[in-house]
Please model this.
Amino acid sequence: MFNNVTIVGVGLISGSFALALKQNGLAKNIIGVSRTQTSLQTALQLGIIDEALPLEEAVKKSNLIYVAIPVDATLTIMQQIMDMLSPNQIVVDAGSTKYALCNLLQKHPNRKQFVATHPMWGTEYSGPMAAIKNAFVGSTCVICEKNESDTNTLQTIENVYKTLGMHLVYMDAQSHDTHAAYVSHISHITSFALANTVLEKEKQENAIFELAAGGFASTVRLAKSSPAMWTPIFLQNKQNILEVLNEHISQLQKFKTALENNDAQQLQTLMQHANTIGRILK
Amino acid sequence: MFNNVTIVGVGLISGSFALALKQNGLAKNIIGVSRTQTSLQTALQLGIIDEALPLEEAVKKSNLIYVAIPVDATLTIMQQIMDMLSPNQIVVDAGSTKYALCNLLQKHPNRKQFVATHPMWGTEYSGPMAAIKNAFVGSTCVICEKNESDTNTLQTIENVYKTLGMHLVYMDAQSHDTHAAYVSHISHITSFALANTVLEKEKQENAIFELAAGGFASTVRLAKSSPAMWTPIFLQNKQNILEVLNEHISQLQKFKTALENNDAQQLQTLMQHANTIGRILK
Model:
């Protein structure tokens, strides 16, 4: 049980994390830090946070500081937080990229007080209104560079995530970013691009609205995700994402060529191969 | 209430349709027709059909014949069925493409007994085991070339779909195929291609399995769809699909270029535009 927990950012992930801590009796008092006053007001009204404070005051009185803001802003703010830590305070981030941050903090004198994590859970919504109870349950949490964290600190955070119902996976930061490009970041790009494709070509919006069935909704769902959150993720994970994106474009071109050639056999083959994804998905 | 209904194909759509007819008291006896004996056995065991008969016998005793098989096989079998109709029998198809079929049957002497429909509902599963109760509810059904059907026949089928909880939309066959390419067919291609992308590049399957979160699952869900069903859809709707596919590849290339140029502003703009799909989706 933490007496005081600061969440930096009061959005989908941090807000859901705060609710989960309270729900599981892991935190007494939750402090919200945000540049956006209206978000703090909303988070207070929703009972996600107990008080709102400026960063320095908040950090000073907290046992745990949980950072979940866009990954470019994370780099700046984490350095500030790490510099002001006293012993026994713990800092955790929840960013979708891990290499840039781990690399930046590698030599920091307080590195052992930091645990780099990526809870693989989310929805296409953002902001404090998007925070929900019972988030994280049954999802995977990646912990990166675990040997760089203090053993007890690591164990404390492992226990928090386990209590929230998460399954833990360990990786170095570079592997995390590669894997995340394949199973998360590319899905967002294809969804955004698919939404733009349909918006571009289909001028009779009413027809989209009328005909859009479940399949369409599920492939473009992520297109509603926050640009502010995803722009820095794509830029920080640029090399991995470009690699997957090139492969994806070439896979689409295989369909295109098969179609142009009326090659039923090749279309079948491509789809039969794709079907094997079923054994990988739950 | 139909005394005898034949479903040609005993799979996801036809099976769910049969269950819905029974559930709503619209059919007394359901006859299954299929080339696959095991599917007929399964459909009998699951109570989807009451009996299995060869096509000719089945059609002869049916008030309504409902065809839901791959769209290439549909062209052949529909011609056979149309040739053997006696007055007052009704034929309906449920295919995902409409132009080739409507064009083929345009001059058929029994054209008025046929209603061309596309219930915009489905899942990624196929076969009689995939048939479920309460399918179709709340989804849209497209009816094509309605003026080519007899007025009473049309009304009968409209009432069936309405009783099943569907919302009706009317289109000419060509418009249907164009719209379906945008809001359904392209989603399937991107899903298949995304699955192949990840399977191709990611050799550590365990990592995919561990990290694949909800976003990935929703964008590749359709990759589990039946190649036998989708190959002829893609080929019949080739021109429309190639057009959308080209646009989609060019949208992906916009992301690629923005990323290569570290162009945060352009990434934001692309995603903000994609966000507007939210107002179109329910």
Notes: The two ends of chain A are 33 Å apart (CA to CA).
